[in-house]
Design brief:
32% of the residues lie in helices and 14% in strands. With 317 residues, the protein is α/β, with parallel strands linked by helices. The protein is globular and about 50 Å long. Mn(2+) binds at residues 134, 157, 159, 161, 239, 241.
């Protein structure tokens, strides 16, 4: 490759989506250039390589890297089927890279998440985060709350993550703490795909179980979500173990009986119109993956969320 040929990929003013290669420079999400430019950004994609709060199999610290590499398979489409616009032309998105913190320094991670993401919320931008274990959602909610107040939570998972017996840093207790910190409004929040133990008589959130998601028409699920969140700003979190292990084997706490990737994508597409201010996809553990099945699922969900956010954004003139 000559200098002139390579310059279109690396110059400051080049179109970050002008390559369709699925294997060259597959480092950032969808080939979006890494940037820490906060101003004039509509959407920041960032990774949080943290897995010190896992209770089962660790390894999600490598999730951001695996999801970014898998996203190279999605770069060739000018616009994502079946959306009728190219999100890359509608919103200004950057890959902010991974947040850095000292090994074993959970408090440093929490403080860094709030400091870095707060810059974007201050500018009116939104964030898409790649985990990391699910504990990262708690500091992300704290950051969102500082700028948007109490939000509605749309939570895809096999577990409610409302357990009270965990340690201070525990990826199964975030949504026990979040309501008590005033971060989310349980009366306008919903958990989807749950298929592990919880007490429905003493549970703050509306729940649609994995069996219900599999049995109900998608349109009914979408309607239930929209009615639940109403007009509140929404934080959407997707634990990859919401998917059945057949579709996402690479995760720390797989639970059979989940939904398919097709079902998940159809639900997300149907949520156009709700006010999503931030979202994450977490718990991809590539060491347990096979043929990038889980990483590709995570990357595709992130791209779908990117389009969902773009669908609520006015086209650039």
């Amino acid at each position: 490759m000559t200098d002139d040929e390579s310059s279109k990929y690396f110059t400051k003013d080049s179109d970050p989506f002008d390559t369709e290669s699925m294997f060259a420079n597959a480092y950032s999400f969808l080939g979006i250039p890494f940037s820490r430019q906060v101003e004039k950004t509509d959407l920041a994609i960032l990774g949080i390589p943290y897995d010190l709060a896992t209770t089962g199999r660790a390894g999600t610290r490598h999730g951001p890297q695996a999801v970014r590499i898998a996203s190279a398979n999605l770069r060739w489409e000018e616009k994502r089927w079946p959306w009728n616009f190219d999100v890359r032309k509608r919103i200004n998105a950057i890959d902010y890279g991974d947040l850095e913190f000292g090994p074993g320094e959970s408090e440093e991670m929490i403080e860094g998440v709030i400091r870095h993401t707060g810059q974007f919320y201050q500018e009116g931008a939104k964030t898409l985060v790649i985990g990391g274990d699910h504990f990262i959602t708690l500091p992300l909610l704290r950051s969102v709350h500082q700028h948007y107040g109490k939000v509605a939570l749309v939570h895809f998972d096999a577990h409610t993550d409302t357990y009270t017996v965990g340690a201070k840093y525990d990826h199964g207790s975030m949504f026990y703490h979040a309501p008590r910190e005033g971060l989310v409004d349980p009366a306008h929040s919903i958990q989807l795909g749950i298929r592990t133990e919880y007490d429905p008589d003493d549970h703050e959130f509306m729940v649609l179980s994995g069996a219900e998601l599999n049995d109900q028409p998608t349109i009914d699920i979408i309607d239930a979500i929209k009615q639940r969140v109403g007009s509140l700003p929404v934080y959407l979190t997707f634990d990859i173990d919401c998917l059945d292990p057949a579709y996402a084997p690479g995760t720390g706490t797989p639970v059979v009986g989940g939904i398919s990737t097709d079902k998940a994508l159809k639900i997300i597409r149907g949520l156009s119109g709700i006010n999503i201010v931030a979202a994450d996809v977490v718990e991809v553990a590539p060491s347990y993956d096979h043929a990038e099945i889980t990483a590709l699922a995570g990357a595709t969900l992130l791209l779908e969320l990117m389009y969902l956010i773009g669908s609520n954004t006015l086209p650039k003139e």
